[in-house]
Amino acid sequence: MVTVFILLINDPWLINHPNSMPELREHTSKNIIKVSDLILQIPTRWNEEKIHQLFQDNSAAQILNTYLPDAEDNIEDQLLWKPHPNGTFSCKSFIKTLKMNQRSSSSVYNDTFPWKNMWNIKDITPNILVFIWRIIHEGLAIFQNLGKHIKGINQDCRLCSTAIEDLEHIFFHCPVTTTTFFGSPLGCRTERYSGMSCKQIIAGWLAEKGNYEAFKMGSCVMWAMWKNRNDKVFNGKNNSIQSIIREAIYWFHYSSSMLPEDELQAHITTLRKAAGKWKPPEDNWIKLNVDVAFDNYKAGWAVVARDSATSFKGCGTNSHEVLSPIEAETRVVLLATDFTVISRLQRVIIESDAEEVIKILNEEKGYIPWILRELIYQIRAKARKVTEVKFVFNKRDWNVVSHTLAKYALSHHSNMWWFS
Ligand SMILES: [Zn+2]
């Protein structure tokens, strides 16, 4: 009989009781641990005395009302799957139960998420609003969710392989996402969102109200990221950052094409303001942000290029064995000058957080440590091919995207270019 194995306290067994668990009296002895301990044999019957001792009156009455089959009934005890009417487990009823659980949890979200504000936004396509709704209800088939139901599935992010693919990673912290957000008209540094859930971040965008610019652009970027992720997972395609941003901008304009021209202009101005502390270069200049990640004589470095309209113009990464961090910090400036020459740029600002390297580059006749001499000469030779190059020092705080990419290059031995 199954009752031999059913635990009195932990297993749901009293079918018509709320939660199927009868309530124990306070300070009940814990010696009786299985349902079978409550049953006397020949004839098979409930041990009334024990049941009254152990359980509150209500529960005791319900137990005693439960029919106990005896040997003559020839009925095997059976485990019941309560969500299905006949008690047998089926995949269909399992999925139905999952959906019902999701629906019931939406009442919790309703309390805290500004759904009304979101559904009232008119100048965005409904498919993107529904997509955001799915994200918040955890309705996307990301690998972390699949891993809850399928044992042994690889849950790594397929874009970077450096983290588990959860919502926050794929939409805010993957190196590909970080670069896309920074390169998008939002110009947003997603590290400011660390520790926040997707739902909190999106609710934050909606709290800005006004024209909901941040929400609209942000959700278009997320939509484009999701399409890109699926392209990689299902078709093995590696899309460029530039094409992901183009896709996001397409949906943003598609959404706002219903607006009159002056309102559209107001949108763009607000987006520029949202670009925050990062200063775009003047017209006709390109700014190249560079950064390095160094670990035990190996380094990865990266350059990210943007123009005066804060549009993303490309990026590149490289990794190498180096003798010191300063060597890597110099090599990344060389990478930036390579980028400048290959892209035929004429006026560039190379912005780095390596104060010493920038100082060396700006002092034409200053002292150059021997270890950097060869590299500095190469940088100067390349810079001479360009109309104007400025080397500028800036704190890392404003340089997060190139730093994320540099770390990515270090962990992936990555050597690649993305051009606009
Ligand atoms: Zn990733």
Topology of helices and strands:
Blueprint: E1 39-40, E2 45-46, H1 48-54, H2 57-64, H3 91-112, H4 115-119, H5 126-136, H6 143-149, H7 167-173, H8 175-183, H9 198-207, H10 213-235, H11 241-256, H12 261-274, E3 286-295, E4 298-307, E5 312-321, H13 325-342, E6 347-352, H14 355-362, H15 370-383, E7 388-393, H16 400-412, E8 416-419
Parallel strand pairs: 3-6, 6-7
Antiparallel strand pairs: 1-2, 3-4, 4-5, 5-8
**Largest sheet descriptor:** 6 strands, mixed
Distance between the termini: 71 Å
Q: Count the strands?
A: 8
What percentage of residues falls in helices of 4 or more residues? Answer: 40-55%
**Beta-strand percent range:** 5-15%
Features:
16 helices, binds zinc ion, 8 strands, two-stranded antiparallel ribbon, elongated, single chain, 420 residues, 6-stranded mixed β-sheet, alpha/beta
